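Predict the holo structure. Ligand: arginine.
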Amino acid sequence: MQSVLNILEARISEVMDEVSGQTGCVALVRPATDARFGDYQVNGVMPLAKKLKTNPSELAQKIVAKLRPCELNLFNQLDQNDTKLNFATTGKLGDICQTPEIAGAGFINLRLKTDFVVDNLLQISRASENFGIEKVEKPKTIVVDFSGPNIAKEMHVGHLRSTIIGDCICRLLEFEGHKVIRQNHIGDWGTALGKVILGLWHMCMAEKHGGKPYYENDIEDLKIYANNKQELKNVCNRIYIRHEEDWEEDFIDKRGDGNKRFGPFLNDLKNKGDSKIWENITILYQYVNLLEESLVGLGLMTLTRVKKKSYNNNKENFEYISIPYETLSRHITAMLQKIDDKDNEQEKNAWTLVRRISIRYCQKVYKRLNVKLKSKDIRGESYYRRKKRLVSVVEDLRKAGLAMESEGAVCVFPEGFKTKEGKPLPFIIQKSDEAYLYQTTDLAALRYRVTGIEYERKTYKADEIIYVTDARQKQHFQMLFEVAKMAGWDIKQRTEDPSSPKGLRGAGGGQNKECRTENAECRKEDGGQRTEFVHVTFGSVLGEDGKPLKTRSGENVKLKELLDEAIERARKVVEEKNPGLSEDEKKSIANAVGIGAVKYADYTNNRTSDYIFSFDKMLAMEGNTAPYMQYAYARIRSIERKAGERNIDIERELAGIKTLSITEPSEIDLAKYLIRYGEAVSSSAGDYRPNYLTAYLYDLAQKFSSFYNDCPVLDASADKRPTRLLLCDLTARTIEHGLHNLLGIEVIEQM
Ligand code: ARG
């Protein structure tokens, strides 16, 4: 079943073609903003009149003449169920709308016929699934890259938005019938990991020293003396001396080989409980971070082992170099890029361990948030080191003459990007120390997704790649997309079939028919063989003071703690509303309401703006909040429970319905809104904006409320009751589907 909006758009556009002698006219049908003037409004006449240089209201009249039921009002005299009735005698919209009205300089207002609404509503309510919403004609393969936390650090509220907006986009696109491939592009070999690995070394040494782990005391000291230069220097010196001694002592064959303590320590760690280690990891990260910040400018040097460049096949292939003490973790990070090198075995073990534990932790958060991201969806930055993917990004861009050396680094200079000084802005793909960057892994990932991404044991080529990150990464993605296009890496199925002209072949599926959003990269002329890149951005989460949300001590708010607090507060709401519930019920309701409130509040905001995080607002029973929606749902379900108590057999009444009796204004209003669910879903998916959907659900709940105030349901007369039961049932099902299936928020049967 097509949505009403689509039917109207198609039919009216056709009439506009006919009347104007043009092709490809667009009716621009939009839902009316004011119900007094009708249900839909046609906005496309004026632009057409402008193009034809004619008078818009005359043009509108000509169009309306073809839309309306014929002059004699024949339609109403005929049997309305006569399917042979055709548009020629009834006007193009005769079966859908009352006589269209011209408004203003050339708008056309449309009001749906109640018969049409009834018919539509019956079809929707009988559709066994999906509310009769049709799947897209040409499903695409869409990669959605979202969440992507930098592991080894606790997830914070900044990760919330990418994670839940991305999840909602996936659900919407899947519901529309697309093949969705979720990708969690975790940051798993950046500086945070270097710090944690160094932190684990400290953990090992702290165990050797015994007692309360020294790093806990050190953290306190570093904080206390943060503003006292001399004392801070003393603390740093003390840490440094201990570090040097510990390092010198930990070897078996060669100075600094770590085989006496660190190696065995890592092996033991594998068998310890994850949660214990995880807690330590976050502290250790903090420790190294704080320490390295404090060390700046003190001039302390430390030794580290590096592989000799000239390699002479015996054991002497290492040398010791002296580096500033505060750069040690960066040095370890660099080793991560050669993680598969057997000389970096300890680092690899530590990395593997930290990665595993962090991922397990993230998965727990996803589960709590009801976000469909599984381990199989993880392909972090480190994945692209394999099969020389990073090496070939750099090589291929060099060969193509697109990448060049600039101040030691390898860069591409995409056109149109300038520094503040007006110089060409580099997209750096390899640093002077040969390290690869975020840009390099992103290019490799993009290429992989376009040429053949493996997923659930199949290989796909993305028709579209959607990246969900905060708006601050806008330029990164603009440049990424531009570089990919310069290199031709957006072209699917390139050069694999040499027999095809220019290496291009028809690529099934990808139809860049129209731009879905303002930032969709559409190129019609290529006939859909190019992958479309979309950057879906969002604003920041702010505290009540309007500044980025932080704890009182100025740290990032941990996502876990935020969720815990939401649940705790929701629990109080439940306690107030319904003290008689059992402990288990209270717990599960508090969980659904708390998590739901955090998610829903995020979704209701226009994603591109910042929003102020407020527990009070998101947990309010009034306004467009999760508890309001969950309550609205539970209330409808309670009507049904009451029906049961009064021996009203809802199922039988619904099954016996042949037609509906919709007469009261609020009834008509609700009915007309119910049939617009598909429109809400498609606009939400089309613009990647969950707030369109939440706005629809909220309006629906409000319309239901008016209906329920005006119209008795269980006490209605026998000719009205089935209709009203159907309205209740369909409203509940729609809310449930929207909340649960599309937003991943639990509904509750009673509250
Ligand atoms: N790890 C990145 C961050 O925390 C997000 C990754 C987004 N995805 C991507 N392909 N770059 O900012």
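DSSP finds 26 helices and 17 strands in the chain. Residues 145, 148, 150, 185, 187, 442, 445, 467, 469 surround arginine (CB under 6 Å).
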